Amino acid sequence: MPDKFTAMNPALYEYLVKHRSQQDPIAEELKAETEKLGPIALMQIAPEQGAFMALLARAIGAKNAVEVGTFTGYSALCVARALPEDGKLLCCDVSDEWTSIGRRHWERAGVAHKIELRLGPALDTLRALPASTRFDMAFIDADKTNYRHYYDEILKRLRPNGLILFDNVLWGGAVNDVHNTSDDTIALRELNDAILADERVESVMLSISDGLTIVRKK
Q1: Across the strands, what pairs with 160?
Q2: With bands split at pLDDT 50, 70 and 90, how would you rate the model's confidence at 206?
Q3: pTM (global) more than 0.70
Q4: Cα–Cα nearest to 201, from 143, 159, 141, 140
Q5: pLDDT at 1
Q6: Going from the N-terminus, what domains does the chain have, and what CATH number goes with each?
């Protein structure tokens, strides 16, 4: 069977990134500022992923969303732009330093009123939410060993046909390397297998950036 994928190279990737509808100058400025942080900037999602997430949010008519792992706020900016004026995005993170970068850009983009940032362990934040809380969409991009716990807390608060997106599910290819036994890799493997076996949802894993799994609650 021939390969059903096209291998990327820098020139082709640049072509891909340019051919997206969402061209947001404030997001580009945020991306550039984040890159000045050095190697840690790799924690920021790719621009095509941000555009894809915004498109999904609009397509399902998302109004209430949650994000676990905000970093400098690029993904939050993309999703908040896609929400209606009375939409709400709950952002969970532990760093005031990194999220302060995002807050400045959210204000400039006119979406700060849609975003509620809660600093502290995300599990504590999620578990403290009222049982009646309902989300239309969630994005999980934080400490990998807690992905499964974030999934459990969010899924029970997700509306039917709502979506949960997981970042880094390929983990640079490590999930398919039997010799890699790091805690993060094992946690991601177990999560990937658990989602596949979970009859409450249907899912697809895509090779966007470092791997993006989309889960739909039945």
Answers
A1: none
A2: very high
A3: yes
A4: 159
A5: 62
A6: 46-217 (3.40.50.150)
